[in-house]
Amino acid sequence: MFQREIDNGICLLTFDRSESGANIFDATTLRDLDQQLDFIEAEDSLEGVVILSAKKSIFIAGADLKTLLHQAQTGEMRAFIAEGQRIFNRLAALKIPTCAAIHGACAGGGYEITLACDWRIASDDPATRIGLPETTLGLIKSGGSDSERQVVFCGGGETARTG
């Protein structure tokens, strides 16, 4: 799910669910991210991490809705959310700088993983849209990102701040 490449001390993690048109989080992708973080924490030579997407117009679309529905029906949702929070907190706690390179749709858990990074860079392509669509359903975000983290978006001569 995450392909790892090391380039001049920078770990590039490229998310690509090759069997799907969208990058979405489920238990398998979270486990893979957790294993990638094991490698990053153990590799002293790394100077930074960049998270990217291999998709043309989607960064990360969030959680797999089929998985969430199944977990809601079986009572497993709390454990899934707690695991996602634990993994995103590990990313946020890395001792080296982290950056999310956003191109395309970045929603829900996709947005939350960017908030776990130190830096976010977004393309100005019309396909790049960032948000938490679950809030329109009366749900609060649950991926574990630090809601106190200030986010600054710059572009077109204007700066937008959240936080």
Q: What do you see in this structure?
A:
The chain is an alpha/beta fold and 163 residues long. It has helices at residues 27-42, 65-74, 77-92, 109-115, and strands at residues 2-7, 10-15, 48-53, 58-60, 98-102, 105-107, 119-122, 130-131, 151-155, 158-162. The protein has one domain (2-162): 2-enoyl-CoA Hydratase, Chain A, domain 1 (Alpha-Beta Complex), CATH 3.90.226. The protein has a 5-stranded mixed sheet with strand order 1-2-3-5-7, with helices on one face. A 3-stranded parallel sheet has the order 4-6-8. It has a two-stranded antiparallel sheet with strand order 9-10. Strand 2, helix 1 and strand 3 (48-53) form a beta-alpha-beta unit. Helix 1 runs parallel beside helix 3 (77-92). It is globular. Mean pLDDT is 85; it is low at 143-150.
Annotation keywords:
4 helices, three-stranded parallel beta sheet, alpha/beta, 2-enoyl-CoA Hydratase, Chain A, domain 1, 30% helix, globular, single chain, 28% strand, 163 residues, five-stranded mixed beta sheet
Break the fold down into its secondary structure elements and pairings.
Elements: E1 2-7, E2 10-15, H1 27-42, E3 48-53, E4 58-60, H2 65-74, H3 77-92, E5 98-102, E6 105-107, H4 109-115, E7 119-122, E8 130-131, E9 151-155, E10 158-162
Parallel strand pairs: 2-3, 3-5, 4-6, 5-7, 6-8
Antiparallel strand pairs: 1-2, 9-10
Helix pairs in contact: 1-3
